[in-house]
Amino acid sequence: MKLLYAPGACSIGIHVLLEEIGAPFELERVSLRDGEHLKEGFTSRNPKAKVPTLIRDDGSVLTEFPAIAYYLAQSFPAAKLWPEGLEAQTRALEIIDYVVATIHMQGFSRMFAPGKFAPSAADAEAVKKRGLEIFETGLTLLDAALGGKDYAVGPFSVADAALFYVEFWRQSGKLPLPAHLAAHYQRMLARPAVQRVMKSEGFA
Predict the structure, then answer these.
(1) Residue 198: inside a domain, yes or no?
(2) What's the number of CA atoms in the CB half-sphere (13 Å) around residue 169?
(3) Domain range holding 131?
(4) Is 73 found in the same domain as 10?
(5) Does the global pTM surpass 0.90?
(6) Do 54 and 10 lie in a common domain?
(7) pLDDT at 119
(8) Are residues 73 and 96 located together in one domain of the fold?
(9) Is residue 93 part of a domain?
(10) Per-residue pLDDT at 173
(11) Res 175: pLDDT
(12) What is the CA radius of gyration of the chain?
């Protein structure tokens, strides 16, 4: 397997899952800042022009965080990345979808790519403000859901990898996390797999 990733992007969550699995994989760094994801070398493999992108051993390509996370969890059951039981599985999907579709795509994207949402440059600050509101509301709701838990839905699972990447973004911005998310983030940083990822991507 090969993961096409950008340091610190949402692909960091998939990178964590690959390290947790322990099976051999390769990394290919993609510079979003330099627009490498928009060039033919990348788009020929993923025309969606974004990370994470997973190239499987048979050469086929998987895209989208939830799909890749699900594939990895089901392909490597010994790693126990997929929760047990219908309720835990449903809640894990609920968290992943909320992180990706709302906190990331609606909140974070407005904050750091307002041009995609603003009808004119004059609207950029209003778009950023709305993005921050969505981001912070999302973190508050996730924090409440984490109350009294070490991990999102029981033992460590794919849902925690999704939580981790938005926690990482918040911490990278030098902004505090709500208490339960802050404790979860520290718990994640203590995991050997996460430590390897942080070192590999240049954050430790």
Answers:
(1) no
(2) 23
(3) 86-191
(4) yes
(5) yes
(6) yes
(7) 86
(8) no
(9) yes
(10) 84
(11) 86
(12) 17
76: CB partners within 8 A, 6+ apart: 21, 23
Distance (Å, whole) CA 74 – CA 41: 29
Cis peptide before 192 (omega within 30 of 0): no
Of 46, 80, 114, the one marking the end of a domain is 80
DSSP 26-82: EEEE--TTTTGGGSHHHHTT-TT--S-EEE-TTS-EEESHHHHHHHHHHH-GGG--S
Q: How far apart are CA 63 and CA 155, in angstroms?
A: 26
Q: Which two tokens stand for residue 125?
A: 């600050």
CA atoms of 204 and 129, how far apart (whole Å)? 31
Tell me how far apart the terminal alpha carbons of the chain are, to the nearest angstrom.
Answer: 24
State which amino acid sits at residue 106.
Q
Q: Profile the chain (204 residues) by mean pLDDT over runs of 10 residues.
A: 98 98 97 95 96 98 98 98 98 98 97 92 94 96 97 98 97 92 98 98 94
The amino acid at 2: K
Q: Tokens for 35? A: 């627009």
